[in-house]
Design a protein that fits this description.
Pfam families: His_Phos_1. The protein is α/β, with parallel strands linked by helices and about 190 residues long. About 45% of the residues lie in helices and about 15% in strands. It has one domain: Phosphoglycerate mutase-like (Rossmann fold). A hairpin with a 7-residue loop joins strand 5 and strand 6. Helix 2 packs across helix 3. About 10% of the residues have low confidence.
Length: about 190
């Protein structure tokens, strides 16, 4: 019985520690984005249907792809409103050419969205994974502006760049000007 209490207390302390880390991680992310000079890597909002796209999909035809759900569309709008409320501004916004990413970026309502092929889905384009990831790292390394860059892409792309597997709509913040893409913090806003 005594051993059981010890295990329960240890688990609770561990859980409290994880919560502290998550709060610190979020605080670091907000601080970095308010400071500027960072890159926010955002996974597109909720798009049900697993990973990848249906057979025969075409990037130029949204009807052939996995798209945002009603929840995903609402979450994107809510995330954009929260970023504005927190005073976060993006100097530039780029998106994967996939419709779920472009739609997420536009629904954030934070500015003009440009598509960037190097953030195309590395699951679907697995034969180009290394090239796409290297292109993403190069773009982050070139970001030396005072403002922030927002990149809306796929979870697998963010994982390839940072080692973090984000949830739908989650933002992983990294320092611009470095090809290491080491996470500064994370924001889960939906």
């Amino acid at each position: 019985m005594r051993r059981m209490r010890f295990v329960i207390v240890a688990l609770l302390l561990g859980l409290c520690g994880m919560i502290e880390v998550a709060v610190a991680d979020e605080a670091s992310a907000w601080n970095a984005l308010r400071t500027g000079g960072h890159v926010a890597l955002m996974r597109h909002a909720n798009a049900p249907g697993g990973t990848g796209d249906p057979p025969g999909f075409r990037v130029e035809d949204c009807a052939t792809q996995r798209n945002l759900s009603v929840k995903g569309r609402a979450d994107a709008e809510k995330i954009g409103a929260r970023l504005k409320q927190e005073g976060v501004v993006f100097e530039k916004i780029v998106s994967s050419p996939w419709c779920r990413c472009v739609d997420t970026a536009k629904l954030l309502n934070l500015g003009t969205v440009e598509t960037e092929a190097t953030f195309g889905n590395v699951v679907v384009l697995r034969d180009q994974r290394e090239t796409l990831t290297a292109g993403g790292r190069a773009l982050i390394a070139k970001w030396t502006a005072r403002g922030n860059l927002l990149v809306v892409t796929h979870g697998a792309n963010i994982f390839a760049l940072t080692g973090v597997s984000p949830a739908s709509g989650e933002i992983v913040v990294v320092k611009g000007g470095s090809d290491r893409a080491s996470p500064v913090g994370r924001l889960l806003l939906d």
